[in-house]
Amino acid sequence: MAPENSIEVEKLVREFPKGPRAVDEIDLRVEPGEIYGFLGPNGAGKSTTVLVLTTLLPPTSGTARVGGFDVVAEGPKVRGVIGAALQEVALDPLLTGRDHMRLQTMLHGLAKAQRRRRADELLERVGLTQAADRKVGGYSGGMKRRLDLALALVHGPSILFLDEPTTGLDPQSRSAMWDEVSRLARHEGVTVFLTTQYLEEADVLADRVGIIHHGRIVAEGSPSALKDEIGRPSVHVIPCDPDDRQRVGALLDRFGEPLAGEDDVAVRLREGVGLTDVVRALDGDGIAVEDIELRAPTLDDVFLAKTGRTLEGAAEEAVVELEPEPTAEATAG
Ligand SMILES: Nc1ncnc2c1ncn2[C@@H]1O[C@H](COP(=O)(O)OP(=O)(O)O)[C@@H](O)[C@H]1O
Ligand SMILES: [Mg+2]
Hints:
Blueprint: E1 7-15, E2 21-30, E3 35-39, H1 46-53, E4 61-66, E5 69-70, H2 75-81, E6 82-85, H3 97-107, H4 112-125, H5 141-152, E7 159-163, H6 171-188, E8 191-196, H7 199-205, E9 208-213, E10 216-221, H8 223-230, E11 234-239, H9 245-252, E12 256-259, E13 265-269, H10 275-284, E14 289-295, H11 299-307, H12 311-321
Parallel strand pairs: 3-8, 3-9, 6-7, 7-8
Antiparallel strand pairs: 1-2, 1-4, 4-5, 9-10, 11-13, 11-14, 12-13
The structure holds adenosine-5'-diphosphate (ADP) and magnesium ion (MG).
């Protein structure tokens, strides 16, 4: 079979000896040239999945084919067609950006004559030309991520894995990264498997999204299809008097299912009722409101509908679960 730049995963499981089932029977398929967003809170199983798909960690069971090659039986072939920028990649603070590129081009066996040109071209593309001869120790977070990306592209991979490429970046660096990732997929036909904790990132960037929680894929589809599935908008109310929250909650109950709000009281509207119905009812009961808002469904609503938690809430829960620290098994290399 001719290798194509797709990813096919069936019933994939990865257990850690003393840890949880980090990846719990996931099925997924990423089409050639597609940007697939793997969205989930901390501890959901995103990095473990990426490590298995990039052949750095063997699966416990199930199968995964990347570029048409089996990750277990054909590891070297998989590694030949993929590029990866992983979360824990170690850049050497004492080397410059250009030094890193030189090492990477050597590692991938580029001919000497090509190395310099390829390095320059990629440094230019990720906007690091000016900083190329500075030590990486002085780079910002955004610059390091961009260098990671350039390093992952050295051998012209047809499938790219990016593990949380924008976590911790400022909005400007984040959108620069989005532009570059889109360009790779749209103009060069690179298949991108990208993990993220950010709803907006999945929404803006991904053609399709898989939402992962506790090692399971709880929802999959295009961002718009997922949101349409949730369908109905929600209404969020902040009463002027915080003591009114309970009354507002009871009133909203009449219009749909209550939502766990943080500082507001919220309801997912039932079919056939609208914002005006809620406003009228609040007026009728003489409840003064500081703010009332109608919100279209977001991917967080999808996450909430499937898991009963918000993404943020789930992340906090995961942090608690992480204590005490699980015994670390070597994950890379
Ligand atoms: N090497 C390891 N040994 C034991 N448990 C691990 C190891 N790596 C990850 N885990 C656990 O597997 C789960 C998924 O982790 P991970 O894939 O890193 O999640 P994410 O990347 O979504 O934050 C977590 O509960 C984590 O603690
Ligand atoms: Mg991770």
